[in-house]
Amino acid sequence: MDWLKEFLLSPSPTQAVVLLFLLMLVGLSLSRIKFRGVSLGVTWVFFAGIVAGHFGLTADTAAVRFAQNFGLVLFVYALGLQVGPGFINSFRKGGLSLNMLGLLSIFVSTVMALLLTLVTPVGVADMMGVLCGASTNTPALGAVQQTLAQMGLPETSPALATALAYPFGVVGVMVAIMILKRMSSKTQEHDRLSGGEDETFIATFDVLNPAVIGKTIEEVADMSGERFIISRVWRNHSVVIPSSDTLLQEGDRCLVITKVRDINHLTAVLGRREEGDWNRDDIDWNAMDRHFVSQPVLVTNKEINGKRLSELKLRNRYGVNVTRVFRGGMALLATPDLMLQVGDRVVVVGKDASLPAVAEELGDTVKTLNEPNLISICLGIVIGLAIGAIPIFIPSMSAPVKIGIAGGPIIAGILMGAYGPRIHMVTYTTESANLMLRRLGLSMYLAALGLLSGPQFFETVMRPEGLVWILTGAFLAVVPVVLVGWLSMKVWHVDFGSTAGMLCASMANPMALGYADDLVSNDNPSLAYTTVYPLSMFARVVVVQVVVILFCM
Predict the structure, then answer these.
(1) Which three-class secondary structure state does DSSP give residue 356?
(2) Fold observed for domain 195-278
(3) How far is it, in rounded angstroms, from Cα 126 to Cα 294?
(4) Whole-prediction pTM
(5) pLDDT tens digits, residue range 233-280?
(6) How far is Cα 496 from Cα 467, in angstroms, rounded to an integer?
(7) How far apart are the C-alpha atoms of 476 and 165, rounded to whole Å?
(8) What tens digit of pLDDT does each residue of 463-498 get?
């Protein structure tokens, strides 16, 4: 059995891989454990590594360091690639204000952390570790460690501080959201339509306004200044698929897809909005009319990637209308200037005989989407690492700031996901493939981090500073969240669901997001989380580096 002992215990690159994957296996198995519906999730991998390190399991240090960095790069790049399209589209109006509130949350928690260094024996570097744990932000911890290493300072202590504060960060944000729920108005959830003001919304309108009768749809759009799509027009007991030059007549009944924020304005322009909810998931669109069908079509043809809808001339060539485009979990309005990407799901309305030709042109082949685009992933990671290595010189600072491997790849992922198709680069990855990269990367990073931190973890817990780290972590996980959440709802009048999602994103806490989703009946928390997370993740990474450079030199 000497070979087995050597295989598992003798430090080597192979043994490091075996040990890390065993830790991932144990941690991910434990992640299924829930206490009153709450689980620490993938964080169990971190604690499995700590226990292994505490009991003397060691591995080749260089291999473990490589796994830690490689896992972090995979996680943040895949995250940026996934949320990139939605982030760019939502970074307007509501999205902008939510991101500003997220940055406010980061600013408040950072200032409070620095103030705590004045009244506690915790140094700045360790307090940044506590803050990373309280905000459950392991990429920020990676940035702290990288900066300390560049400065020639010890980097283990902040990791231990993060490990102690992390569980209280997970639970603390949930406690803060519970407090905010009690503080919020009972009627606040009804102040906004489900989905957010910038989301697509379907409604029927009766054309009664004399100012638009006899005008083409294009003229009405120019006159109103709003963007909308008319999917169907019911007229004299018949239905037509309209084009931009279709004349509106008095009494026409129009099925319109537009933005939530434009509903009231379109009601005044067209005449009257009918009652009825057309935004339910259980509506059978094909049962509405005998001669027209509504069918989702996947864009898998690489020749379509980066083309605008107007370039395809689908209405003129096939007599069909594209009403909505689903991308990255968001429903986009199918305006003529919308640029299509591989992986988009477009909703096409027209005669049944025309749809096969449209599907053939767009691709509509699921197998094509399942093929990984490794070239774009490799290129994006290289670009991200190059961005992370760029020194940023800030006046009055003795050393340049680098956003490093925790910040560069997420920026590259966002840019590749959002703008790659504009240069006809296929950057689409299936949701399952992207989730696999993220889970694998984060698990690998946490296993390596725990293994390196384990030898000193329990010894630190028993020391007085360990208790201080735990208490300050709990404080930073609750107080800044409640303060900014209260300001969001009472001063900026943001609904509770969006406020909770924004705070979960600013604290990088997907576990708390699941709790917030259970408290409201709409998907505002998830939409806000997706909108705020990328910028908040980037800001946390940069802020902790700046603080360490300014106060630890």
Answers:
(1) helix
(2) Alpha-Beta Plaits (3.30.70)
(3) 58
(4) 0.69
(5) 988 888 888 888 889 998 899 889 888 878 888 888 998 898 877 777
(6) 33
(7) 9
(8) 777 889 989 999 999 999 999 999 999 888 888 988
Domain ranges within the chain, ordered by starting residue: 2-187+438-552, 195-278
State the number of CA atoms in the 13 A half-sphere of 156 facing the CB.
10
Name residue 5's amino acid. Answer: K
Neighbours of 286 (CB within 10 A): 13
Q: Identity (one letter) of the amino acid at 430? A: T
Q: Rounded to an integer, what distance in angstroms lies between the CA atom of residue 503 and that of residue 487?
A: 12
Report the DSSP beta bridge partners of residue 296. 347
Report which secondary-structure segment, H or E, holds 170: helix 156-183
Which residues pair with residue 348 across a beta bridge? 295, 322
Which residue, among 243, 246, 250, has the nearest Cα to 211 in the 3D structure?
250
Non-local (6+) Cβ contacts of 269 within 8 A are 209, 211, 212, 220, 223, 224, 226
Three-state SS string over 274-343 comes to CCCCCCCCCCCHHHCCCCCEEEEEEECCCCCCCCEHHHHCHHHHHCCEEEEEEECCEEEECCCCCECCCC
* Residue spans of alpha helices (H) in 423-495: 431-461, 464-490
Q: How far is CA 468 from CA 126, 127, 338, 348, 474, in A?
A: 11, 10, 53, 59, 10
d(CA 529, CA 177): 14
Assign 256 to helix, strand or coil: strand
DSSP characters over 186-248: TTGGGSS-TT-TTSEEEEEEEE--TTTTT-BHHHHHHHH----EEEEEEETTEEE---TTPBP
